[in-house]
């Protein structure tokens, strides 16, 4: 019988506020579809570390492996919070999950909904997806420091790119491009300067392109890609890029499509050897936490990506349509609370 078993990691700051609304919507849509929904909460994040000293114990990773998918809110302390080492939770919990569960496709769709005010004067039709590598690059923690604290300090942060890792990501990008109407793939890097990793990416894209003759391919250096993201975002269809470039590109992509409160993502293990994890692109937003000011739409759209991944594309489409219907009625002059937005989207369902 139809059922979904989801682990919920609400996290810190606005994480619990926006996740509550995503859960509200998931309950509504699964009930309507006759799908049995099981939710298990996991306390993890900065607050959990402060209370217990634990980041992400091995037995928690094992327990998470038993679920169909993970719904994630956000983690992280406020910048300048001295009670917690900077980046500890981000590295030892969030990135550790992405790496341990082999979330190699970090999927970040960008869509400008009708009724959303873009900061761009003439945005055109924005409908692209960033396929960001999720397990390699400068994120792997391969670095070190010599003579720390002296005038002669040397710090390295080595970007690790493997043929295996780049190939599976690039192939996923081509597959997605081949299934979209425009069938266009743009790979973004900086191979004029990053000649080792950049050229591995370049050769990989050229090789995989042979298997997808229907997909048109172009390349942009990341700096120029940022120009076009602002001057002509309609040119993009599928963007494939490395972990760090993808992080930066997708915050700008969120801004041009009406704000970080709308941007959803999936950390996807396409081989399904472990559960995938779905989360808003944004962080814990300490500046607005606890005030019911956060927009839960990104979390709700992330739940739609989850439904799609676990085999309920019809339910996913219903959630996306409910979000689109709600967005079309939004009045920027009349701010709603986080839970009011969740209620409104659930009501459409
Ligand atoms: P952030 O995304 O948390 O906030 C940036 C700005 O966007 C803030 O002004 C915030 O109020 C606003 N914002 C974010 N989400 C919003 C929403 N749903 N509705 C309305 N406004 C929203 O980024 P930051 O300030 O750089 O990071 C804060 C903390 O979050 C840090 O500890 C950081 O490491 C962490 N972080 C975690 C994740 C994650 O868990 N996936 C992602 C990014 C940052
Ligand atoms: C994101 C975040 C994370 C990232 C951080 C918090 C590790 O910025 O999900 O975009 O850089 O991937
Ligand atoms: Mn980010």
Q: Would you give an account of this structure?
A:
Catalyzes the oxidation of 3-carboxy-2-hydroxy-4-methylpentanoate (3-isopropylmalate) to 3-carboxy-4-methyl-2-oxopentanoate. The product decarboxylates to 4-methyl-2 oxopentanoate. Residues 5-345 form the Isopropylmalate dehydrogenase-like domain. GO terms for molecular function: 3-isopropylmalate dehydrogenase activity; magnesium ion binding; NAD binding. Helix content is 40%, strand content 22%. The model has no long low-confidence stretch (mean pLDDT 97). Helix 1 (15-33) packs across helix 9, helix 7 packs parallel to helix 8 and helix 10 (313-328) crosses helix 11 (338-348). It has helices spanning 15-33, 46-52, 58-65, 88-100, 163-178, 197-209, 222-231, 243-256, 297-309, 313-328, 338-348; strands spanning 3-11, 36-41, 69-74, 105-111, 127-133, 137-146, 154-160, 184-189, 216-221, 238-241, 264-268, 276-280. The strands form 2 sheets. It has a 10-stranded mixed beta sheet, sandwiched between helices. It folds into 2 domains: 1-108 and 260-349, 3-Layer(aba) Sandwich (Isopropylmalate Dehydrogenase), CATH 3.40.718.10; 118-257, Isopropylmalate Dehydrogenase, CATH 3.40.718.10. By secondary structure, the chain is an alpha/beta fold. It contains 11 helices and 12 strands. Nicotinamide-adenine-dinucleotide (NAD) is lined by residues 14, 18, 74-77, 90, 94, 260-261, 279, 282-288, 294-295, 298.
């Amino acid at each position: 019988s139809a059922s979904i078993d989801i682990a919920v990691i609400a996290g810190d700051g606005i994480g619990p506020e926006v996740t509550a609304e995503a859960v509200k919507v998931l309950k509504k849509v699964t009930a309507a579809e006759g799908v049995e929904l099981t939710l298990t909460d996991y306390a993890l994040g900065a607050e959990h570390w402060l209370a217990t000293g634990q980041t992400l114990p091995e037995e928690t990773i094992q327990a998470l492996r038993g679920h169909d998918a993970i719904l994630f809110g956000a983690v992280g302390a406020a910048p300048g919070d001295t009670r917690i080492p900077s980046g500890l939770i981000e590295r030892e919990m969030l990135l550790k999950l992405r790496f341990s569960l082999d979330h190699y496709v970090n999927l970040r769709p960008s869509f400008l909904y009708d009724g959303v005010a873009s900061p761009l004067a003439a945005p055109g039709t924005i409908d692209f997806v960033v396929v960001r590598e999720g397990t390699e690059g400068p994120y792997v923690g391969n670095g070190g420091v010599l003579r720390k604290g002296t005038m002669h300090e040397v710090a390295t942060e080595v970007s690790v790119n493997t043929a295996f890792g780049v190939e599976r990501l690039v192939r996923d990008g081509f597959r997605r491009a081949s299934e979209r109407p425009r069938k266009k793939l743009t790979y973004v890097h900086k191979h004029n300067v990053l000649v080792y990793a950049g050229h591995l990416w370049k050769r990989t894209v050229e090789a995989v392109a042979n298997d997808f003759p229907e997909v048109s391919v172009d390349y942009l250096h990341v700096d120029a890609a940022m120009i076009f993201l602002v001057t002509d975002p309609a040119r993009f269809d599928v963007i494939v890029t490395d972990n760090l470039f993808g992080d930066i590109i997708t915050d700008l992509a969120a801004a041009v499509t009406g704000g970080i409160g709308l941007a959803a993502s999936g950390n996807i293990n396409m081989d399904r050897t472990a559960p995938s994890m779905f989360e808003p692109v944004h962080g814990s937003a300490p500046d607005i936490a606890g005030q019911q000011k956060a927009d839960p739409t990104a979390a709700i759209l992330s739940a739609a990506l989850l439904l799609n991944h676990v085999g309920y594309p019809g339910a996913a489409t219903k959630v996306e349509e409910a979000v689109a219907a709600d967005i079309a009625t939004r009045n920027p002059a009349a701010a709603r609370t986080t839970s009011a937005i969740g209620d409104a989207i659930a009501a459409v369902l």
